[in-house]
Amino acid sequence: MSEPFSTEISDRICTHMNEDHASAVVLYAQAFGDQPEATEAQMLAIDANGMDLTAKVKDETVPVRVKFDRTLKDAEDAHHTLIEMVKQARKVAK
Predict the structure, then answer these.
(1) CB-based contacts of 65: which residues, under 8 Å, 6+ apart?
(2) Does the pTM of the predicted model rise above 0.90?
C-alpha cells in the first residue's frame, strides 16, 4: 500500500495536475463540480474524500469541491481515480 494522504502528497498531486494536466482539472470542475461553464480551473488540495478546486466561470473565480464516490486509500488510488474521472468526463463532453 502506498503512503496515506498528507499535505506533501496533496501538494505533489496538485502541482502535477496543474502543470501537466490543466485541461483535466477543467473537466473535473465542469463534469463533477457542477460548473459546466468553467473555462479554467486549478486544483488546490486533494484528500481521501475529494478535491478542492477553483474555477473561472464568467470572469469570476469560484471555489469548487468535487467529492469522490468512495474514500480513497492512498496516492496510488488517487492516481487511478483521477484517470477514471477524466475518462468519464471526456465521454460526457463528446
Answers:
(1) 33, 50, 51, 52, 53
(2) yes
Distance (Å, whole) CA 35 – CA 27: 9
In 3D space, the residue among 93, 94, 13, 91 whose CA is nearest the CA of residue 51 turns out to be: 13
- Cα–Cα distance measured from residue 34 to residue 15, given in angstroms and rounded to the nearest whole number: 23
**Burial annotation 56-71 (CB, 10 A radius, 16+ → b, else e):** bbeeeeeebebebeee
Four-residue CA torsion sign, 27, 85, 66, 1: negative
45-57: pLDDT as tens digits: 999 999 999 999 9
